[in-house]
Amino acid sequence: MMQQSDIAAAIAVKVREARRGMALSRKALAVAAGVSERYLNDLEKGRANVSIGILARVATALEVAFTSLLPGAADYYS
Q: Which end of the chain, N or C, is more open, meaning fewer C-beta atoms within 10 Å of its C-beta?
């Protein structure tokens, strides 16, 4: 079973990779998702306990499926 910190770290990697893949700055993504740049920074470092609502807004801003930002089986057993 993954610990909460492991889940946050897995989400952090997925958000950061998706943002970089779109060549977006943290500021641009924060504005598009309606969160502060500091919050997004904490999210990308695995230090934020993100709510489902905020993660959904980030996914929408990144134009990816919400579920693509969640840890999957490979994240649990890698």
A: N
